[in-house]
Specification:
Elements (H helix, E strand, L loop, with lengths): L15 E7 L4 H9 L4 E8 L10 E5 L5 H8 L4 E4 L9 H22 L3 E7 L12 E2 L9 H20 L2 E7 L11 H4 L3 H13 L5 E6 L8 E2 L18 H5 L27
Parallel strand pairs: 1-2, 1-4, 2-3, 4-5, 5-7, 6-9, 7-8
Helix pairs in contact: 2-3, 3-4
The chain binds 1,4-dihydronicotinamide adenine dinucleotide and D-galactaro-1,5-lactone.
Length: 278
């Protein structure tokens, strides 16, 4: 893929030596493995699952994020981190805890010890999933997570705020909407983030100077939006894609039942996932 508009990978301010990508075997990890290639000399890829064969510019390290010593080794020698790894859907708390909560703590502790100064953290719209659909919210609103998964992302946002305030590690928290090849339902017409826009968002978050601790919603320039990114304007994120191309197909499907709460809240079906407790 060509470097995105206005962001030249030949520009040394938009390039680093070694970039760590966690969750590299996952859906977005596989996308960014290719698309971040122009922005680093060496991409260090990590996941709990197999990473496949590596190219000359890649290093692959299989590591469980819950393994603090392993994560310390993983972070050695990296200049910046894109942290996608972890459980990415609603699951019982005892599955979320090691991967997402212990895991993000291990990652920031390793970053602190190794002197890494920039992290891009894949948070989620499920940190605010219990806001009603149709309400516009900015990035300063109180969190309203819609499950244990959303709570773990809220923990990551708070943890990264602390590591900035105490240790000066800068983080951009991406409250990603729905990043898939296509918007698949009516909610995703609003929450969809195309892969070009995802890439732009990650690149801006990696290389724009002085981001401090920034929270930004990750959605394309869709016709309707619930999310106001004005407090993250310094990132220069300027989405170019739109879910309109999927509207006719999506609207040919039957709508949700009027009493289905998946149609009431921004988190959609996540608000009713589970229960996993007895
Ligand atoms: P995914 O589930 O495809 O990828 C997550 C990866 O993390 C997987 O390859 C998995 O093996 C790895 N992983 C899980 N537990 C681990 C552990 N204990 N140690 C090491 N690696 C572990 O998810 P996807 O869609 O690629 O999302 C990437 C990130 O973005 C996730 O953090 C997700 O929560 C977040 N996100 C994604 C959205 C989307 O629409 N795709 C929306 C909002 C947030
Ligand atoms: C997420 O946080 C999930 O990781 C992803 O699989 C989608 O469910 C997305 O949110 C969404 O809300 O559509």
């Amino acid at each position: 893929m060509a470097p995105i508009a206005n962001i030249s990978s030949n520009d040394s301010s938009r390039h680093c030596h070694r970039l760590l990508l966690t969750g590299a075997s996952g859906n977005l990890g596989r996308v960014l493995r290719e698309r971040l290639r122009p922005y680093a000399d060496i991409l260090r890829l990590s996941d709990i699952n197999d990473l496949g064969p590596t190219a000359a510019h890649e290093e692959a390290i299989v590591c469980d994020l819950a393994d603090a010593d392993g994560v310390d080794r993983l972070v050695q020698g990296v200049d910046a981190i894109v942290h996608l790894g972890g459980v990415s859907v609603e699951r019982p708390f005892d599955e979320i805890l090691p991967a997402n909560i212990q895991g993000v703590y291990n990652l920031y502790e390793a970053a602190r010890k190794q002197g890494v100064k920039r992290v891009v953290f894949a948070s989620s719209n499920h940190t605010i999933g219990f806001y009603p659909q149709g309400q516009t919210i900015d990035t300063d609103v109180p969190l309203r997570p819609d499950g244990y998964y959303g709570i773990s992302k809220a923990f990551g946002e708070n943890l990264s705020r602390f590591y900035f305030d105490r240790y000066g590690i800068e983080t951009v928290c991406l409250r990603i909407g729905s990043s898939f090849p296509e918007a698949r339902d009516r909610r995703m017409l609003i929450t969809w983030l195309g892969y070009d826009d995802l890439t732009q968002l990650v690149v801006q978050s990696l290389f724009v100077p002085n981001v401090g601790h920034t929270i930004v919603y990750g959605a394309s320039a869709n016709r309707e939006s619930w999310w106001d990114n004005s407090r993250a304007a310094h990132l220069g994120f300027d989405p170019q894609e739109s879910s309109e191309q999927f509207r006719a197909k999506v609207e040919s499907q039957p709508p949700l039942a009027a009493d289905d709460i998946a149609g009431k809240f921004q988190g959609g079906a996540f608000v009713k996932a589970g229960p996993f407790t007895s």
